[in-house]
């Protein structure tokens, strides 16, 4: 596939899915735009507000594919969405829902009733409304806190459609979307299919139900690995968001190119809690290499002017420069699609652990393979993010030993699906990526990795003066006075830790399984053939026995006579 940055502006689109299941998109420059109507209450026969949400609290057993790590009721931080809640009235949402339902339905009915579930749900960047129709249809309306821009929203929608078309990954179907404000609610929006299921972050700890907990956990990992491994079929030569060319009116989406990606600006992160304005994203890239990508993330960080901060940043850069290239042994560097937030809140499963939906594809992009679709799910890597890891104090945390066992199980599953070369160390690669993209957790991750390489001895008798000390190394790096032998020791240890594992061990399971199958087929084939041959000789057994019974031994005399 070709990959290039397109500098031209993308014309805003809006569209919907028709009754045949086709994604119909319209170019706003080609057809007249209907001005947004004033918020007028529709007839009472078609509006109904339900004050009892069908989705209960986070401890319940049901959720929807609303996206953006949603939660319900009082646990949801709705305060930052006050502007949306005030500006967009329920009547406008109902009008939009009914109009979309009429366009989508193959047999529109004048008696359609839409129930707007209240209170709404919310996530980090989206306000979520559940739309429940009296014909059994249930949809989810997602309203972004800030206008994502037409390029970003179109990339997300078309990438989801691209993945749905070429894989069997369970992604919510997009019913309708509009990247402009020229609609009933005067806001960009996405309407998508409602999917039943429970987030993994709840199911992982739920010991109720007929399925044993350990069996459910293994099925979760099996089905998640099966879904994510399908993304390995797509390879790209740049890091960025997918953009699509061709006829946007067609439901057939093809020819993806790579355009800029969106990163959150750090100075805005510090003010989010105060002003409730949400994140501010800036457009960067695309990038030709994984090292260029992570270096750009580091360059965007604001480093405080003290020796500790400077030294820690330089130590992190040593780790970034030691990361492997995003390629197998015989390939050029290439990149893959993956879910932008591989957390348990975005993966919905059935009671037995079978994956039912993957939600929240905001800012989906291509990434290096070592943090790509073969990497570990985030709930298996929590011990490598000390700022977030609450074991043993937290009630719902796996121990490091348990997480390591689950990682080995997941890597084995990935190996059986093709390769685990980019899986076995992905928790370490992910930690370095998180430190590069999230300054708040950088120091704790650097400390974790450094002391993984150079453990601190509890017993003074085991003290080794040659063991690097983090404080001393950081101070020396800040002052550019780290002795050469110490720098070489630290650097070589980092390079060994981050080196890409050989492919051979990751394919052992698959090779042994295929060898066993071949041996069984051989035995089954030739045992059957031998038996058939033996049975075919039964009528001739008497003649064969008489032959051996009357046979005379050959003697030296008889042999001599023949020679004469």
Description:
It is a single chain. By secondary structure, the chain is an alpha+beta fold. It folds into 3 domains: 13-199, Phosphorylase Kinase, domain 1; 228-508, no CATH class; 511-563. Helices cover 37% and strands 14% of the residues. It is built from 18 helices and 18 strands. The chain has helices at 82-87, 90-104, 150-166, 200-203, 213-228, 266-269, 272-275, 290-299, 307-321, 400-416, 426-437, 439-453, 470-478, 484-498, 503-506, 508-536, 541-550, 556-563; strands at residues 13-17, 23-27, 47-50, 114-117, 121-122, 126-133, 138-144, 174-178, 189-193, 198-199, 241-245, 254-259, 261-264, 281-284, 335-337, 347-349, 355-358, 366-368. The strands form 5 sheets. Strands 1, 2, 3, 4, 5, 6, 7, 8 and 9 form a 9-stranded mixed beta sheet that branches. It has a 3-stranded antiparallel beta sheet with strand order 10-16-17. β6 and β7 (138-144) form a beta hairpin. α8 (290-299) packs antiparallel against α9, α9 packs across α13 and α11 (426-437) runs antiparallel to α12. The N and C termini lie far apart (84 Å).
């Amino acid at each position: 596939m070709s990959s290039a940055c397109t500098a031209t502006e993308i014309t805003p689109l809006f569209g919907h899915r028709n009754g045949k299941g086709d994604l119909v998109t319209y170019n706003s420059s080609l057809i007249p735009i209907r001005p947004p109507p004033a918020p007028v209450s529709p007839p009472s026969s078609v509006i109904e507000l339900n004050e009892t949400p069908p989705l209960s609290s986070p401890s319940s057993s049901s959720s929807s594919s609303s996206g953006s790590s949603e939660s319900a009721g009082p646990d949801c931080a709705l305060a930052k969405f006050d502007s949306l809640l005030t500006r967009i009235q329920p009547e406008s949402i109902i009008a939009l829902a009914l109009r979309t339902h009429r366009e989508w339905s193959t047999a529109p009915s004048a008696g359609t009733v839409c129930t707007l579930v209240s209170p709404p749900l919310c996530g980090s960047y989206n306000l979520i409304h559940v739309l429940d129709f009296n014909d059994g249809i249930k949809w989810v309306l997602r309203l972004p806190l800030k206008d994502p821009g037409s390029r970003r929203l179109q990339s997300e929608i078309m990438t989801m459609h691209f993945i749905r078309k070429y894989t069997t990954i369970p992604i919510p179907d997009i019913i309708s979307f509009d990247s402009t404000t020229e609609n009933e609610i005067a806001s960009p929006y996405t309407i998508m299919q409602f999917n039943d299921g429970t987030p993994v972050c709840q199911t992982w700890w739920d010991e109720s139900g007929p399925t044993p907990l350990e069996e459910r956990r293994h099925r979760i990992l099996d089905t998640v690995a099966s879904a994510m491994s399908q993304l390995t079929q797509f390879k790209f030569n740049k890091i960025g968001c997918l953009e699509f060319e061709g006829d946007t009116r067609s439901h057939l989406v093809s020819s993806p190119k790579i355009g800029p990606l969106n990163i959150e600006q750090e100075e805005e992160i510090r003010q989010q809690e105060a002003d409730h304005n949400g994140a501010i994203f800036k457009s960067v890239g695309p990038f030709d290499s994984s090292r260029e990508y992570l270096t750009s993330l580091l360059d965007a960080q604001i480093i405080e002017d003290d020796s500790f901060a400077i030294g820690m940043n330089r130590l992190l850069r040593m780790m970034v420069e030691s990361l492997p290239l995003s390629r197998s042994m015989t390939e050029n560097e290439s990149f893959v699609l993956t879910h932008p937030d591989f957390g348990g809140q975005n993966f919905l499963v059935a009671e037995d652990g079978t994956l039912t939906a993957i939600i929240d594809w905001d800012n989906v992009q291509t990434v290096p393979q070592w943090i790509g679709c073969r990497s570990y799910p985030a709930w298996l890597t929590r011990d490598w993010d000390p700022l977030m890891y609450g074991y043993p104090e937290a009630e719902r945390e796996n121990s490091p030993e348990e997480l390591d066992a689950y990682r080995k199980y997941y890597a084995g599953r990935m190996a059986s699906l093709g390769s685990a070369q980019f899986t076995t160390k992905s928790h370490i690669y992910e930690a370095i990526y998180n430190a590069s993209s999230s300054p708040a957790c950088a120091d704790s991750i650097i400390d974790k990795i450094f002391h993984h390489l150079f453990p601190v001895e509890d017993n003074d008798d085991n003290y080794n003066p040659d063991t690097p000390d983090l404080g001393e190394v950081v101070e020396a790096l800040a002052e550019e006075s780290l002795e050469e032998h110490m720098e070489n020791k630290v650097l070589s240890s980092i390079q060994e830790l981050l080196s890409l594992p050989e492919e051979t061990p990751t394919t052992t399971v698959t090779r042994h399984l295929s060898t066993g199958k071949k041996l069984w087929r051989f035995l089954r084939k030739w045992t059957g053939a031998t038996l058939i041959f033996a049975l075919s000789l039964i009528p001739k057994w008497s003649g064969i026995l008489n032959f051996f019974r009357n046979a005379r031994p050959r003697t030296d005399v008889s042999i001599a006579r023949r020679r004469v």
